[in-house]
Specification:
The structure holds 2 protein chains of 2 kinds.
Chain A: H1 12-22, H2 24-42, H3 80-116, H4 118-133, H5 136-146, H6 152-162, H7 165-178, H8 182-189, H9 194-202, H10 207-231, H11 242-252, H12 258-285
Chain B: H1 2-29, H2 43-52, H3 59-71, H4 86-121, H5 126-140, H6 143-157, H7 172-201, H8 204-211, H9 216-228, H10 230-254, H11 260-269, H12 272-300
Helix pairs in contact in B: 1-12, 4-5, 4-7, 4-10, 5-7, 6-7, 6-10, 7-9, 7-10, 8-9, 10-11, 10-12, 11-12
Classes of the chains: A mainly alpha, B mainly alpha.
Chain lengths: 290, 307
């Protein structure tokens, strides 16, 4: 499909890549995301401590002290470097997982509604409107009552399963705009079935906006996970999440400000980077800018 | 216009009904109940408790009962706050939450629009870049990070405002929560205003206004800003939903006696009626405010068609 879409010598994707590379904020963000991800998955093994081990001799020590707790410890003497990185790990995994789920459902739903049109489209989009009218976090909180607390994986499959609303709308709009194009007509004329047209012809052609929106969905999902964990509805002790660490840190900030600043710093960096990267991708891929 | 308004108003009712029905059945399908987590009760006592609250009846019957209660403004008893009905709990907290939310939206408009206008008028200047960089941060920073940070800086270190609490609604207790809550909304409104004002400034009628010699001030305020603010009006609906969501966190961080925290506590305690009550009230509130924003938009923009 990409071969067909490139009449010029330099293809659409090569062009987009060139534009993205010129965007300094996006490139810095992308490298920071890579660095943080590597740190999150490899970093903890360099520390002699585990995320739930209690060090009775070093309770609530600040960073940079004469010990091997590089970012200090929490009130219970657990190593903050390892705990924060464990939280980043959870954030990244959940952000990707939930985005993937919402992407699959959203693309399938939106493409189907847009391509079939008529009454089915009406009904499907009405359903999306109703879910849309409720603040998202309400749906998430209702869902969180459904599962045993601590079963974070299932919870986030479920969150991804309601996070597809915007994606469905975007894909539907794109589908509407291409479904009368000649190549669809050609496919129809040569007897291709509805399912194959959706999968082989519609979906590959709406992938640009989908990528942009997916990059912007990842920080949203990371935010939701931290939000729920901050409120005590997400990741449970002794597991650590950026949200629950920030909550603990906020309670101790009078005497131990690093407990707040360390996890908050990581969360803010991650969110900002993903947002800049998403913005950069949008500028690079948006055909109106060409 | 009137027919459109009426149709939209009646459209809210089925939406609210579907939301109530969906959340009612989803919550009841959840494993565990409100009487599970205390010390294990003898089965007879638990059965009696459930009978007293009507939890032993079949689900559809419970649902009809619940709807009957709602129609009379009765949200049922809270299972955990035993001495209160859900109606009482929400009625206590809602005024605080509403005041917090309304002040936040108002502040966001008062700060966001001028900032966005300034950025648009000085496009590509350091002022513009500065404002937009702060706006990106404002959108990226979640309130559960900014809240504690503000409390730390302005409450603990500078001692300008109290860190938390609520002394009979004194205004200084509202300052930090309102700023925390409105920061992302300010950022978003500033971005919206900037973007749409830049577009409007390139249109022909603005050129005409300038050509006939109007002072720049008047061109901006009377001609350009009015159509440029339409996207801000349509953002007001999502903004209120955002503020309602944010109030859950802000009320927790600053220890305000609002109703937002009941949603979270209700979910933790599996206090069905409390969660349901919050969803009905906040859901209804969101729907109504969205509707108002839409109607306001239609009234302001004569290009909107009603069919």
């Amino acid at each position: 499909m990409t071969e067909l879409a490139q009449p010029s010598a330099r293809g659409f994707w090569a062009d987009a890549w060139r534009r993205l590379r010129r965007n300094r904020a996006a490139m810095v963000s992308a490298s920071l995301i890579v660095v943080i991800s590597l740190l999150a998955f490899i970093g903890p093994s360099f520390s002699p401590h585990s995320f739930d081990a209690i060090d009775w001799d070093h309770m609530a020590v600040p960073p940079g002290g004469p010990n091997d707790h590089w970012l200090g410890t929490d009130r219970l003497g657990r190593d903050l470097y390892v705990r924060t990185l464990a939280g980043v790990q959870i954030s990244l995994q959940i952000g990707l997982l939930a985005t993937l789920v919402s992407l699959c459902i959203g693309v399938a739903f939106g493409a189907t509604a847009g391509y079939l049109g008529g009454r089915i489209d009406n009904l499907m989009m009405r359903f999306v409107d109703i879910l849309y009218s409720l603040p998202y976090i309400f749906i998430v909180i209702i869902l969180s009552t459904l599962f045993d607390r601590g079963n974070i994986l299932v919870l986030f499959l479920a969150i991804g399963a309601v996070g597809w609303l915007t994606m469905a709308r975007i894909v539907r709009g794109q589908t509407l705009s291409i479904k009368r194009k000649e190549f669809i007509e050609a496919a129809l004329a040569s007897g291709v079935g509805t399912g194959s047209i959706l999968a082989r012809h519609i979906v590959p052609n709406v992938i640009g906006p989908v990528i942009i929106y997916a990059t912007l969905t990842i920080p949203q999902m990371i935010l939701f996970e931290s939000f729920l964990s901050f409120l005590g509805l997400g990741v449970q002790e002794p597991q650590a999440s950026l949200g629950s660490l920030i909550n603990e840190g906020a309670q101790e900030m009078e005497s131990a400000v690093w407990m707040l600043l360390v996890p908050a710093g990581f969360l803010v960096t991650l969110l900002t980077c993903f947002n800049f990267l998403g913005d950069g991708l949008r500028d690079a891929l948006d055909p109106r800018e060409r | 216009m009137l027919r459109y308004a009426l149709r939209r108003i009646f459209g809210v009712v089925p939406t609210l009904f579907i939301i109530i029905a969906l959340s009612f059945f989803v919550i009841r399908l959840a494993p565990g109940g409100p009487f599970d987590e205390e010390q294990t009760l003898p089965p007879e006592v638990k059965a009696n408790l459930e009978a007293a609250y009507g939890l032993d009846k079949p689900l559809p019957e419970q649902f009809v009962r619940y709807l009957g209660g709602l129609a009379q403004g009765d949200f049922g008893p809270s299972y955990k706050f035993k001495d209160f009905t859900v109606t009482e709990l929400i009625a206590q907290g809602l005024p605080v939450s509403l005041m917090l939310g309304l002040s936040a939206v108002l502040l966001a408009l008062l700060v966001g629009i001028p900032l966005g206008t300034l950025a648009a008028l000085r496009q590509n200047s350091p002022t513009d870049y500065g404002i937009m960089a702060v706006a990106v941060l404002g959108i990226a920073l979640p309130s559960f990070v900014t809240g504690p940070l503000f409390a730390l800086i302005f409450g603990l270190h500078l001692r300008w405002f109290p860190v938390a609490g609520w002394e009979a609604g004194e205004y200084r207790y509202l300052v930090l929560p309102v700023i925390t809550l409105s920061l992302p909304v300010i950022a978003y409104i500033a971005r919206l205003t900037r973007g749409s004002l830049l577009e409007v400034l390139r249109t022909n009628f603005v050129r005409t206004a300038r050509a006939k010699g109007l002072p720049e001030r008047q061109v901006i305020l009377r001609h350009a800003l009015r159509p440029a603010l339409l996207p801000v009006v349509s953002y007001l609906g999502p903004a209120t939903a955002f503020v309602i969501t944010g109030s859950l966190v802000v009320e927790t961080v600053f220890g305000l006696p609002g109703s937002g925290r009941y949603l979270v506590q209700g979910a933790i305690n599996r206090d069905y009626t409390l969660v349901m009550g919050m969803i009905v009230v906040y859901g209804g509130l969101t729907l109504t405010l969205n509707l108002l924003a839409d109607l306001l938009y239609g009234w302001l923009d004569p290009r909107v068609r009603y069919d």
